[in-house]
Every structure is written in structure tokens, then in C-alpha cells.
């Protein structure tokens, strides 16, 4: 999907802008500053990842441990990459998680990213901050794409069993009154299966990063999800047509290349997940 621009993007329906981990290309991922800046840029949805702390709180984090690439110990020292999994969020109460910094270490892949003190926030606090910001700006309500990660070997080690994990996330979503604006995302069929049983009214998105046929993915899942979320490099016109025939929305990830953005807009996808919402926003504003 790197061909020349054949027509202006204004000729096609506007896809939703999904800010990946807030706006990872601009601010430290999955932090309050990243989500606040993404909202200021005008994203339609905040995409984020959640894990669970030792005291059962839902924490916004991509890994269930402190990544040595982006986080520092409470004393400011760098984390040894060989020992990063020892800093297991599932074994730490949130008051200790809050003491680590995950914003001061420059991310080598994102040269435009601002470095500033930042911590892993609770999902509850992200939602409340976002809802307050939206209310102040008088913009349309924000949507949330919440990814739940799990591996069978991680049950009881890095996260609860799927039914407990999903129940914790769903309970918080209901408590905060945003259930009608949430999609639960996962690469793991067992997470989406549990979500469908516990809260059939919550849309789910199957994330995909391999080249298995769509029919095989759906057979493993056991039902047709509301949203299909492939790695954008896997998306073809034929795959798009297959998904459309089944009534699924299409939101590919993680798209940071302008030419790829343009091609996906031309394909007519429903949303685009990007680390650079500002780049996608500027492209969509072109005449």
C-alpha cells in the first residue's frame, strides 16, 4: 500500500482517528500527557492497553512489567533489560507502581516524542481525565479502544485468569458510565469469548498480526466480532470485502506512514490506529 496518491482524501469517507497508546509518537505511551494531547489533537478514540496490579486495580500499561526501554526505577536508575520481568505489575500494589517513571527515557523509535516525568495511570483516572477534558472542550464524546493482553502461561503470573481479568475491566467500564463508548480489543480469542459471555452488549475487536485466512481466525474465535483489527500491512481489498460481507468494521493498526494512511482512506476503512494522530489529522484536512 505504498503507491502514489491517485485522488484527494476528501473524495473518500473520513475514517475515525484512533490514538495509539494516546499518541506514542509525540508523548510517552499510555500516560496521561499522551491521552490529553491526543484529545487536544481531535482523536475520535483513545487506544490503550490494560494490566492488573497486585491489589486488583486496572492499570494502563502495554506490558505487565516495567519495560527497560521506557521506564526507570523509583530511584531514577535504569532497569536492567535482562531483569525487567522481575518488575511485575501483577506482583506490585498500585502505590508502588506509581513510583516508577515511564516518561523521562527518550524512545529511540520516536524522535518527536517529548520526554517528561510520567507514570502508569489507573484506567479509572484516564477515563475521568478524558471525560473532563471532553466536557470542557464541548467536543463530541470520546470512544475508548481497550486492549486486554493475555497468554495462558501468564495466568496467575502476570495477570489473572481470563474470566477474572475481563470481569475487572468490564466492572470499571460500567462504574465509569462509558460502556456504550467502549470496544474491547485482544489478540487472544479467550479474552473476547469471555467478554461476549459477560457483556454481550460491549463490542469486541479481534486483533490480527498473522497471515492466517479470515475464516480460520473466526473459526478459532467461534463468532463474528464487531470489529476486525489487522496489522495494516495485511489488509487487502479482498480481505476488506470479506470482512464487510460479514458486517465487521475494519480498524487497522499501527499506521504511521503517510502513503499507507492515504491508501487505507481510499480503501474505505472505518478507523486508523496511529502513533501520530497529528499527521493523520492533517492528511484528512487536505482538500
TrEMBL record:
SUPFAM superfamilies: PLC-like phosphodiesterases (SSF51695). It comes from the Bacteria. Residues 15-284 form the GP-PDE domain. One of its GO terms (biological process) is lipid metabolic process. Gene3D superfamilies: Phosphatidylinositol (PI) phosphodiesterase (3.20.20.190). GO terms for molecular function: phosphoric diester hydrolase activity. PANTHER family: GLYCEROPHOSPHODIESTER PHOSPHODIESTERASE, GLYCEROPHOSPHORYL DIESTER PHOSPHODIESTERASE. This is Glycerophosphodiester phosphodiesterase.
Amino acid at each position: 500500500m505504498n503507491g502514489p496518491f491517485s485522488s484527494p482524501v476528501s473524495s473518500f469517507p473520513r475514517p475515525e482517528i484512533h490514538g495509539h497508546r494516546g499518541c506514542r509518537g509525540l508523548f510517552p505511551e499510555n500516560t496521561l500527557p499522551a491521552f490529553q494531547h491526543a484529545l487536544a489533537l481531535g482523536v475520535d478514540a483513545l487506544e490503550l492497553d490494560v494490566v492488573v496490579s497486585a491489589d486488583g486495580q486496572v492499570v494502563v500499561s502495554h506490558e505487565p512489567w516495567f519495560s527497560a526501554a521506557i521506564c526507570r526505577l523509583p530511584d531514577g536508575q535504569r532497569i536492567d533489560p535482562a531483569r525487567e520481568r522481575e518488575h511485575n505489575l501483577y506482583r506490585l500494589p498500585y502505590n508502588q507502581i506509581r513510583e516508577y517513571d515511564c516518561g523521562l527515557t527518550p524512545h529511540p523509535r520516536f524522535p518527536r516524542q517529548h520526554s517528561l516525568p510520567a507514570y502508569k495511570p489507573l484506567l479509572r483516572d484516564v477515563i475521568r481525565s478524558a471525560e473532563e477534558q471532553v466536557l470542557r472542550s464541548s467536543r463530541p464524546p470520546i470512544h475508548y479502544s481497550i486492549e486486554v493482553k493475555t497468554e495462558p502461561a501468564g495466568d496467575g503470573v502476570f495477570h489473572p485468569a481470563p474470566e477474572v481479568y475481563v470481569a475487572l475491566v468490564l466492572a470499571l467500564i460500567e462504574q465509569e458510565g462509558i460502556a456504550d463508548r467502549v470496544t474491547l480489543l485482544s489478540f487472544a480469542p479467550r479474552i473476547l469469548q469471555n467478554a461476549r459471555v459477560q457483556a454481550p452488549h460491549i463490542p469486541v475487536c479481534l486483533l490480527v498480526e498473522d497471515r492466517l485466512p479470515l475464516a480460520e481466525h473466526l473459526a478459532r474465535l467461534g463468532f463474528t466480532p464487531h470489529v476486525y483489527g489487522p496489522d495494516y500491512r495485511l489488509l487487502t481489498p479482498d480481505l476488506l470485502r470479506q470482512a464487510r460481507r460479514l458486517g465487521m468494521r475494519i480498524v487497522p493498526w499501527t499506521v504511521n506512514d503517510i502513503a499507507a494512511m492515504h491508501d487505507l482512506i481510499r480503501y474505505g476503512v472505518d478507523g486508523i490506529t496511529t502513533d501520530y494522530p497529528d499527521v493523520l489529522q492533517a492528511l484528512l484536512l487536505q482538500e
